[in-house]
Amino acid sequence: MASLGGELESDSSDEEWVFTSTKANSKTQQRISISANSIRTMKANIPKRVAPPPPPLQHHVTQIMPILQQKKLMVKQPSLQFISDKELVTMCKEMNATLLVSKLVDVYKSCEIFIRIRDIETQAMSIEMRLKDHLCHAADPCDFVLNTLSSLSIYFSNNPKNKDLTSKFRRLLASTFCTALARFLETPIDKRQQDVERDLISLDDDIEVDLISFDDDVLPPGQIATVVQGNDLTHQHQRKLIHMIDNIPSPVIVYYAMDLYKLSNIASLGCEYEDEGVKLCKALMKHGHYDETVACIRKLNLYARFPTNSIADQYFTAGHGTSLPALIQGQPILQKELLSFINKQLRFNYAGGLDIIPRKYLADLYNGSDQTQQLSRLKERKFQKDLVSCGAKILKECDAVQEDEYYFIGLSQRYACLRFILAQRAIQQAEDGDLSIEASSNFNGLIDLVCEDDPVLARLAIKELIDTGDTVAPPHFASLYKQQEFYCRYNALPINHRLLGIVKGEQMSRHRSMFSPKKASNVNGLAYYTLPPQAQRVMVNSHASLMHMKDILSISNICGIDTEWVPTFAKTTVKTALMQIACDIDNYVFLLDLKTMFLPQNTQLLYITEKILQLLFEDDQILKIAYDFHGDFDLLHSSIPSSRTWQVSRLLDLKSLKTMPTLTNQGQPIVGGLAGATSTFLGVTLNKRQQLSNWEKRPLTEEQSIYASCDACCLLDIYYTLVRLNHPFIKNIDKSTNNTDFSVSNNTDLSFQRLQL
After folding, report:
1. What are the coiled-coil residue ranges (predicted)?
2. What own/partner pairs with CB < 8 Å and gap ≥ 24 does 720-723 have?
């Protein structure tokens, strides 16, 4: 006889395998069966990372043991958990909701096991499909599912110490019941009653079955009517679900079933049970189901019952303000109400006596015409961030909004960016031990980007620098932004008089000594990559320099390409500011000044620039080397829309580059971006300090120019090293090389030689 393990491995059907002694009486003999569903359940309960133990070696005693004795040993093994179709039929006939919930929890045990079982079982054998097939046996399927949902809520409430009974597990089980009923109701009535399959393998000896008879089955009169009766959704079922809001421990169960039972027909605004709909929304909010509350208000159209200021107060205070944009999406009036509420709350943070904000923005607060109350957590920076994030998200969806209409939302965004820049500047100074203005040129440019055209932010920058204990920068920026009067006045104030707003418990910025240094980026102490001595840096910002760049590119074979732009947090609209192109001809590095080309007076220069770049990217004679260029191209598409139509050819992206293969592996992924690739193949690293700087400020600083040139030149040096090492990454490079997702062109209609500019 084949072993049990062998039989299970060869089983590909839902039939049950029977092991019995040949001398056993068929009437009294109990059989052991393992169905395919039981096997799936067993597999799902095996931990993913723990392989099943190997079968024990067969002892000589076991080999001669009678089959019946082996069967008795097997009976002692733990039984497999599985709800059979017979059990489902019985529970449906008896409408035993409590037993069904208990059985399902015993089988699935936890959310994780539930998901794993679903991953390995077929759709037809899923519990909701099987339950759907047997709901026809219930006298009232809709009522049976309601009772099951109620029992589910009670079961989870009565077993709080069982850590496996999570809210997600409860949601999955509730979804199972609702899906089963939904599929059942979708099934035509004449197809709901399924014939019960006869067991042709194991038959009771007392029952004779005629397998040859051709007589049609005759149903007793009225049988179909009995089965179908009560199968449809009625108003009574809807009312029962409504009443469950007060009668079960977890009202979210009602939310899970509201679409199935069409509560929107009776509980929406203006309907018979509108108050119960409001009660459901409030119950969801009380139990912490904020996303479900949003969905419920939208489904029942109960906006009028939940005033904007009131629900905004509750959501922001609970830390769920990020859900509010979804609540009012597509509701312009409500969006403006919420924006006004957020703007007024943020206004309290700037209403102090420092005269930083123009008084016109605070007039109604000073004259008492606005009686808006402060939110209780307004003093917290994290809370302010939630307000700003919510307001900014809504502003993106609104059309024709004046900048001054919600002034404090935009101001708070820029002020948060400014604080971040100043904090990073202080950390860099602490690491360098240098407080000089020159040593922080990268961050100084970003401060200019935020403050140079805004006196309010200029004063806020000076305030922050003084508060953090910087003694060098405040007078410098006060002079630069013509804010000497404010600097002298604020610097003379005692600490307790430096409050910006009128919020009780206002938090001021930490002193610079409390900032934690960054994690060292160059832990191995590698030298920094430097430009080749013969490198020729050329700033391309005129017609003559464009023509010079075109001439060099027309005879080039290999180019390294990179781009730079200002950080997105420092500016609302960002474009590519600079493109670096390093050539294999005479060590040229062209710094293409796209910021200048985008100026309105330079439309002709921009046209020439677009044509030259199109020729470069489409030329199949020039190998273009880049690193993770998808982000660069996305912004370039936004900055130069015509670039979307370029047919890019021979662009080699080094992002997927790995270390040199060895005898034991095919190469390891390289971490650390371009700097990691540089250290791996060149033995040096990149100085990334200027990466976070103002790439739109002209002229570029010397440090910015060198940094940008290094990013392009190192790509060529890495490529030359790969060639020397005969690295597999570049073995198959030919004229069709393009390891990106960009469209490829084998031919180009233009050429550098034919381009007439």
Report:
1. none
2. 721/681, 721/682, 722/657, 722/681
